[in-house]
Amino acid sequence: MITLTGQNLTLAQMKEILFENQKVSASEKSMEAARKSREAVEKIVSESKVIYGITTGFGKFSDVLIDKEDVEDLQLNLIRSHACGVGEPFPEVVAKAMVLLRANALLKGFSGIRPIVIEKLIELVNKNIIPVIPQQGSLGASGDLAPLSHLALVLVGEGEVFYKGNRMSSLEAFQKEDINPVTLQAKEGLALINGTQAMTAMGVIGYLEAEQLAYQSELISSMTIEGLNGIIDAFAEEVHLARGYKQQIDTAARIRSYLSDSLLTTQQGELRVQDAYSLRCIPQVHGATWQALDYVKEKLEIEMNAATDNPLIFDDGETVISGGNFHGQPIAFAMDFMKIAVAEMANISERRIERLINPQLNDLPPFLSPQQGLQSGAMIMQYVAAALVSENKTLAHPASVDSIPSSANQEDHVSMGTIGSRHAYQIIQNTRRVLAIEFICAMQAVEYRGVKKMATQTKRLFDAGRELVPSIKKDRIFSKDIERATEGLKTMNLAKLIQPLDKVK
Length: 505
Fold this sequence. Notes:
Elements: E1 2-4, H1 11-19, E2 24-26, H2 28-46, H3 71-82, E3 86-89, H4 92-106, H5 115-126, E4 130-131, E5 134-136, H6 145-155, E6 160-163, E7 166-169, H7 170-177, H8 188-193, H9 197-227, H10 237-241, H11 246-258, H12 277-280, H13 282-303, E8 312-314, E9 319-321, H14 329-357, H15 379-395, H16 417-449, H17 456-468, H18 478-491, H19 494-497
Parallel strand pairs: 1-2
Antiparallel strand pairs: 3-5, 4-6, 6-7, 8-9
Helix pairs in contact: 3-6, 4-5, 4-9, 9-13, 9-14, 9-16, 9-17, 11-13, 13-14, 14-15, 14-16, 15-16, 16-18
Keywords: Cytoplasm, Histidine metabolism, Lyase
Subcellular location: Cytoplasm
Family: Belongs to the PAL/histidase family.
């Protein structure tokens, strides 16, 4: 059981909850903070004070006062009117992350929402009742209004959910689990939808997948080095200490570890003086990707524990401030940075694929073909990798540099962070396929060199890969191989193949 406090949720805990079905609870201290902020809202309503979103309309309607008897209708109308997302739903794991992150943010005690609503969100997480949330329609300020409105619809019994593999109305799922919908009271609709949880949830899932891919890319590229009799000297510790980037140093150390007992690597001058950049500069390029991912991780873990709605309630209700924490610019920048960093992993991987199959660049059979001319071998796999890399370049265009005014220019600058996070996720999927192609080609190359000469670590990866994709003895429908290898990478537990990654320095 992981206890949510609104203060210290980590990506490691998110992974446990989302992928290992770990249950969550709310700390009593945080629930007490929520109760106190709720009392402040009720006092504001009883005294008919003019406070944005509690006794006024929203956006450009912030100057319109709402009668005391209409505050509940105001919240329900808000949810219904803002639930206008379009397109395919977010992946279920992303939607579950949204619910979890919204509960965690509300537990900070600045939002004025009743504890029962937070309890309902936690119940959805623990019982795997996942809101159906369309992916498109958020500007990333005032937060993720459209996506989070679809989440809030579920709580009032008007939305749709995924439950035990089926898509159904929230009421149907609630009946199966003996859950009652809630009636939103003053400020609660606004507190549920004014936040950055869609872009952050998408970013969390993207980061967790990108982190795994970054480790896998080092192991796969190590096998490529063997397939090309690469020069190991370029990974010497003193080279990387001389520059000083920790991530570059660590990447080189892991590759040295993976290849420590390989008989397929060479020394400089043995076969050639130096390798091409796509081999020689792996620590520099992959290390730079790790630098970006470290930045993304830092920003995500801050945002996961942030109060991002508006207005915020302080000093037991004595101070209510209308601010702009819902603006997604920090996450928008982080998502764009992740897009570029992961796209570059695919970029350099595709160049290694070219070196594996191009007879002008190696001494292997052309295109790794088992029968030159009659069999095309891996020729068109490189085409596919090139197409995916090119698509990544268009997706990597920064979303965060765009802004379109909304709400009659009251909301005149927005982040587009959710678009950035969605594009980052697409790039990650494309990059995994490119790495899968490099994996297939590298396995074929080391077969020609001699599998018995492989390093212990890369041989374990080779054995796992051959369970997914057989050796190329003749041409076949290679798209099936690519997809099997891709799925294998997505589910592969690297810790079972190699020594713990965080111990390899």
